[in-house]
Amino acid sequence: MLVEIQPDSARPCSKKKRRKEEKETIEAREVETTQDEEANFGVRTCSSVERLDYEEEVCLFCEEPGCTAGLHCACTHDINRNVRKCAIELEDSFLLAKLAAGDMIAIEAKYHSKCLAALYNKARSA
Questions:
Q1: Radius of gyration over every alpha carbon of the chain, rounded to an integer in angstroms
Q2: Is the pLDDT of residue 100 over 90?
C-alpha cells in the first residue's frame, strides 16, 4: 500500500492549528505596526530620554544651593515623619506647603545636615 504525502498546504488542518496560525499572523502584524509607529513618531523610552535638570538642587529648608556633597537625600520615612512633625509643631506654613506635594522621598527632597539639625533644635526648644 502506497501512501501519498501531501504538502502542508494541501493537508486539512485542525481547527486548533488554524486558530494558532491565525493568532500568530495577527501578532506578527501587530508587531510590524508597532515598529512602524515607533519609527514614524519617535517613541521615547525611559532609557532613551536623558534626565534634564532645569533647576539647581537646593536645600528644602534654606533654599540655598549646595554642591552634591553638601546636600543629603531624604531616603527614610523616619526623616519624613520627623520633619513633618516639627513643621506642624512650629506652624511653619512655608515648610508645610512644600511637604504638601508629597512625602520627602517622593519629592526627592535634599537638605543640609545643619539645616535639619536647626529645625530639630528649634522644634525641641518650642
A1: 31
A2: yes
Q: Assess whether pLDDT exceeds 90 at residue 86.
A: yes
- b/e per residue, 81-113, with b = 16+ CB within 10 A? ebbeebbeeeebeebeebbeeeebeeeebbbbe
H-helix or E-strand spanning residue 110 = strand 110-111
Query: What's the pLDDT score for residue 18?
Result: 76
Beta-bridge partner residues of 65: 58
**48 pLDDT exceeds 70?**
no
All three cell numbers of 50: 536623558
Question: How far are the Cα atoms of 11, 39, 43 from residue 47, in angstroms, in the given order?
Answer: 48, 16, 11
Global pTM reads 0.55
How far is 106 from 5, CA to CA, in rounded Å? Answer: 67
67, part of any domain: no
Over residues 8-33, the pLDDT tens digits come to: 555 555 777 778 788 787 777 776 66
Domain region containing 43: 14-50
Total count of residues recorded for the chain: 126
Do both 112 and 76 map to the same domain? yes
